[in-house]
Automatic annotation (TrEMBL):
Pathway: Amino-acid biosynthesis; L-arginine biosynthesis; N(2)-acetyl-L-ornithine from L-glutamate: step 3/4. Catalyzes the NADPH-dependent reduction of N-acetyl-5-glutamyl phosphate to yield N-acetyl-L-glutamate 5-semialdehyde. Residues 8-139 form the Semialdehyde dehydrogenase NAD-binding domain. This is N-acetyl-gamma-glutamyl-phosphate reductase. It catalyses: N-acetyl-L-glutamate 5-semialdehyde + phosphate + NADP(+) = N-acetyl-L-glutamyl 5-phosphate + NADPH + H(+). The lineage of its organism: Bacteria, Pseudomonadati, Chlorobiota, Chlorobiia, Chlorobiales. The active site is at C147. It comes from Prosthecochloris marina. One of its GO terms (biological process) is L-arginine biosynthetic process.
Amino acid sequence: MRGYKKPTVSVIGASGYSGAELTKILLRHPSVKLEKLYAHTQAGKKVQDVYPFLDTDAVFESYGGEKDTDIYFLALPHGEASSIVPKLADAGKLVIDLSGDFRLKNPEEHLKYYLKSKDPDAVLTYAMPELFHDEIQQAKAVSNPGCYATSIILGIAPLVKKPLNSALVKSINCSAISGISGAGRSSKVELSFSEMSGNIRAYKVGKHQHTPEILQALDTDTVEPRFDFLFTPMIAPLVRGIYAVLNIQLDKHLPVSQIEKHFKEFYRSAPFVRVRPTMPEIQHVAYTNYCDIHIAESTDNGSAVIVTAIDNLVKGAAGQAVQNMNILLGYDETLGLL
């Protein structure tokens, strides 16, 4: 359109894996203009010297409180966004925060799972497009879901948010495997090639910080949960991807065909959720913003197994963040992501 001025976008924390993925998507986005890439530890370096695959002449800069672009993505370590987001929001900027600083409504849960205290009012709209699209449209600053949380919530929500044949969820036992990039770009001995090659291990069993986020999105909490929930995260020698196996106990039997039909109806307006008749694989979703879901089994005693797969850096972080930006701007939510 002649005379149309594209909204400008900057990324704070652009040198991490999620920040780099954001940069890659925003560079090809047809309806925004990428302005500044802030990264304190890499300040002064050319972006291409750090990430040669990014087609830009930009140089990383240190963020000093600037508010001169229309939209800000924050891809910072937990705890660092809490002082920046309110100032940007007060200045009228659109803000998408990828950290956990503003996700949880209950400050006691935040303190327990993030080991940091927070202002009880420091909560943003939880921006999972498939569940809270209307709320996102009305917001100015949003909190992007976590990667594990995205893969698990999407695999459970239809049975909790809109029970099928009045079948109630009694318990959920979830095991999910993440690629190493989920731990960030900083060097850690336990994540080195010699430690992880041919290896897999569980960690933070029942204590992972995405646990209260998952339950909150499912209309309950860790204090007085409506159903028993156990989450076992694992790390495997993959660069990217999350593969979640959800063992759900219902109070009555539901056939696989009915559950599958129910999921398809629930996500009929969700362009990035694919309810598959076959088992998902990481390679089916890598480098995409899709979440693939398969209803694997349902037994006579009410047990059901649902499997999901996402790319942790795209649907689990940067892709979902751009999807949320599109909604905030009134664009088609798939813009720049297909």
